[in-house]
Amino acid sequence: MTPIPATRRIANRRQGRGGDRGAAAVELLILAPVLLLAALLLVVAGRQVTAQLAADPVAHAAARAASLHNDLPAARAAAEQAARRSLEGSGLACGEHRLHLELEGLRPGGTVTARLVCTTRMDGLGAFAGQTRTITARARVPIDTYREAP
Transmembrane residues, as ranges (predicted)? Predict the structure, then answer.
């Protein structure tokens, strides 16, 4: 391979045929917003999954508390109290929550189904700040077959 004369190298640089100097910086400048958006979306998805994982035990605690009572008003009150306590202990920041119970008359051998609907805020996430997400958790608990009927 013969070396390129210095005069020809200088001519190539002047005509724009010289190396790729600065190309990496331009590519990084173009890709940086895309990479930041991808990271932000991963954080949002992580928060959504974490909130769902925290809501499931709350619904289960409410269903379990309701299944231990024989009368409907006491079962509803116990479920609400258990849900409130579990929400406080889980660290799940529900702006508001609603608890729906299906009690099936609380008959032995039946089931209690609790559905928790929780609204969380996406604070501190730049473009997603101020937005809310609704998380729904459902749990079904059997009522003891050998307990006294109401």
Answer: 21-45
Segment 23-45 shows an average pLDDT of 86
The Cα-based distances of 127 to 30, 33, 35, 38 in angstroms read 20, 13, 15, 13
101 domain-assigned: yes
Residue in 124, 121, 137 with CA at minimum distance from that of residue 59: 137
CA trace torsion 40, 43, 49, 52 (10° rounding):
-90
Number of folded domains that form the chain: 1
User: Model's pTM, two decimal places?
Assistant: 0.71
* Boundaries of domain holding 101: 21-142
pLDDT for 60-109, tens place per residue?
A: 999 999 999 888 899 999 999 999 999 888 777 777 889 999 987 788 88
**Residue 150 included in any domain:** no
Task: Please name which of 99, 104, 146 lies closest in space to residue 118, comparing C-alpha atoms.
Answer: 99
Q: Does pLDDT of 27 surpass 80? A: yes
Confirm whether 27 is domain-assigned: yes
In a domain, 10, yes or no: no
